[in-house]
Amino acid sequence: MNERAQCPGCREVERLGRRRFLQLLAGGAALALAGCTSPVRALARHRKPEEALPTATPATIVDDVEGGSPIELGEIPPPHPGGAHLVWSGPAGTQQIAWTVDDGYCQQCIAQYVAFAQNSGIHLTLNPNGVFGDLWTPSVVAQVREMVANKQLQFGNHTWDHKDLTKLKEAAIQSELSRNEVWIEDTFGVTARPYFRPPYGYYNPQVLEVAGALGYTSILMWNGTFGDATLETPEQIVSLAEYWLKPGTIMLGHLNHTPILDLFDQIHSIIASRNLDPVTLDEMFGTSRLIG
What we know:
Blueprint: E1 20-23, E2 60-63, E3 85-87, E4 96-103, H1 107-120, E5 124-128, H2 138-149, E6 153-155, H3 170-188, E7 195-196, H4 205-213, E8 218-220, E9 224-225, H5 234-244, E10 250-254, H6 264-273, E11 277-278, H7 281-285
Helix pairs in contact: 1-2, 3-4
């Protein structure tokens, strides 16, 4: 989805991994922080072309003995309708961040993000569009289901085909959310409720009312971005990671373009050097796939 969040001030906007956690030592030269202008998309262009990317220290994978019982996939709880509220950032006072990943029209991006999660133990929240469901191959789906069961990956609803919901009538909004929910349930064995990220970040009172009535009471926004809804350079992506990754960030990424796929180690060097704890939304806000 395209970024619509704005920088702070521009808009009112000691858990380890369940099975494994990626521990990195920050390596290479520090990058200068990107400055804040207006929309987040504008923040990508701050690094000088001659500046090199840092070299990441190789990852160390460790076991997590506090994983807890796996989720039984396929046990879908009923919706819990209610008033919808906006979620812009994580709670204060922790080192947690939520790395969220939207859309999914790049099959290579889907496969490599999933492989990255499986190999590293990073916790992610995925918000895919079901219209691209054919790009999720059976082997990838099997990997994802295992990580969902182990509470390492989680899903939010991002609508079926990424329409601007503010331009639709009530029945069409319901269809966008319900159709995508069915695809997530049937494919991955869990509900996306109560989390819903509106395409482009666009919402109005009708969108919030419909979402809440369907059980999507947490409207997922963001306060940090990799800027990769569109094709960006590696330098731009890392610069935004340097700027936005801090305690409480809900970081927006996408399964759309390949440049970020070679930057996972650099991004994790930033995360580790700041002692940040990547978690799912359930872990950040105390929700559960068994409750929805």
